[in-house]
Amino acid sequence: MSEIASAVVPSLLRDLIEHICRMRQCGVPVGSHWPAFAPSDTLVLSLLSPSASAPEGLASTSGSLSTLPIAQQCEIISTARDFAVAALSSHHQHLLSAVQDHHNRQQPIYRLPNEVLSIIFEFVGTWKPGPLGISHISKLWRQVALNTPSLWTTIHHHNLFLVNLFLHRSKSVPVDLDFSPDRLRLHPTSTQNSLCPQTDATMSGFAWTLRPYAHRLRSLHLSCSGISPRLLGQHLDMPVPMLHSLSVSSLDGRFRYSTAQREMPYNIFDGCTTRLRELILDDVCIPLASPIYTGLASIYLTYVSFIDSSPHDFTRRLAACPSLNHLHLHAVTFDTLAQSSVLHPVHLPHLKAMSFEELERDLICGILNSIKVPDSLRLSLMSLDEATLHDLLPPRADITQNLPNLCATRSLYIYGGQEYSLPKISGTFDFEFAGGGDTFVREVFFSISRIPFPMLKSLTISNLTKYIFDSVLFSHILEHLHTITSLTLERCPAAAAEMLTLTPSLRLCPSLQFIVLDTCRISGATAIAIARSRTSLDYTQGKGQMCLRKLIIRNGVGIDVDVMRTLQEFPIELEMHVDSDYDYADSDSDSESDFGSEPGSDSES
Q1: Residue 340 C-alpha from the chain's centroid
Q2: What is the tens place of the pLDDT at every residue in 383-422?
Q3: What is the 3-state composition of the chain as percent helix, strand, coil, each rounded to the nearest 5?
Q4: Which end of the chain is more exposed for a tag (fewer CB within 10 A), N or C?
Q5: 3-class secondary structure for 556-583?
Q6: Are residues 598 and 487 in the same domain?
Q7: 3-class SS at 354?
């Protein structure tokens, strides 16, 4: 190795020094920054050749180093060394690249047509390593990636340079853009109540970057942390005719800005959102006067406060969305709850799901009074201020016409709640009631009569504790739901099960065919009485009635062999279950338990 170095290095440095001397005599400055350009392969070969021709005007000039002062000699030698190292490194990289390229082209994947590679890239493009990683694997892959515009259409970056790069490389294909500036990175010393000028500049730069490509936006998700929604909306004044989905959120808007500052301009995107179908606003408001509320299929509003608007104005805007499929309102408020008389409810025939969370009772009632929905709708609501169904729903006659989905319920679930969960009623709907006290829970269950259930067949009552239960309440529920053929009681007092025994004076749900008594501490005597009364002769008409077909008892009390033998004599199917962890210690004090556990926690043995 030393022989090769002694044969090559001295001659290389000598030729470089001579070349630099001639350049210096021609007036070219010699120093640590000369030459200022990166050495190319052609320049390396010219320096390695002793017969290399000098530039014009230098051929007859002597380049002797020994005639120069010692300081200049040292400077020239150092420059020649640096240049030789840089030139050799460049040539080395070129040779390595050529060898690797030759190796890559021998691999099986390189036999695939570029079109097939493009399809593969599109399939994995949104996963790691992503478009940027794919384009840095090899020259061929980079060429294919850069010629696959659809690979660059999903943009999730905080960096404006990368956003601009992806927009450019996506060419004319519609793009999905998610841009959320990192507020802590842009302005780490900002306090909770101060603005972030750097974030404002970033969003201004984003709007400027987006402007030439706005006509290709298919979906846009923006987070305006560190900038007020009103100021952000002023930047978004370009038309977006292809936009299908828009999501705008302000992570700390309601804690940093006033209601007016959280309202975006009504003419956002220059009023041109003709293809918009999905609108998601979180802590940001767009006025109802905006044309953006036209032709929508999905509306999701969270912590939105409308100014100079009422629920009636909102439902009138829904009339401009006849194809609406999903409507979700969470903590939405209006500065006026004044209601106008509803002559013709807004018909929403395609509505599939509607959800109201943390809304005031007048707002829920105002909206439900103003719309007409299909019977396939799934309705979910949670009230705030101890409202019952009497406070939230329209009159019974209007329910039948405007909310037929409630009347179409075939299976109903009633849950009494406990310390950390709210009472709820669910069927083709989910109603959750925020309030405190056993009296309020009883009022909620009494209000079930607000809804007619002509098609109801199955009823489950769970967690009806001893503090909530009374015979009047239980009779009221079952008399209103008299059409049921299946009844399940979970964690209810034994007194509730005892009321299922048919007597001349008490005949609750006489058409029951299936009864499940789960952890109700029912005694053997009560089980026998229920079975006998529901498989005996009719008390009033004198004809046999064989309604009850199946009785299931879990964790009964005092059900011994004699009781089992007696129950098996009745023409019904009988099932008995005892959980392995069931506690019989206080089996005689069934009325003292409040059965406060969540349903479904028992395991069958």
Answers
A1: 35
A2: 877 889 998 998 887 898 899 999 999 999 999 877 667 8
A3: 40, 15, 45
A4: N
A5: CECCCHHHHHHHHCCCCEEEEECCCCCC
A6: yes
A7: strand
